[in-house]
Amino acid sequence: AALVAVSLGLRRRRRSGGGRLPVEAVEVLGRTAVDGRHAISLVRCGSRVLVLSVDTTEGLSTLAEITDPEEVNLLVDLCGLPHGGVAAALGELGQSADLPPGESAHA
Is pTM, for the whole model, over 0.85? Predict the structure, then answer.
């Protein structure tokens, strides 16, 4: 009975156009400014990553669509790294390797 209620609720929500998209469907991975008017954004849509040009006067346009699973995973992983990118992440790994098992470098 609970499963039927959840299913009906989801159907109603879908029909009403409702709500935010789940992170599994669309996720903004990151953005960087190119100049005062232009930026590039990486947006994961399902199993692909879109490279978007963001222009303050022209709006959005797609520069590339990345579908190779290894490249998609690499970009998702790189965008999830702490500020400072790969070097910072490697530094954190090094600090964690010096700690006794079960302790965190961020404690």
Answer: no
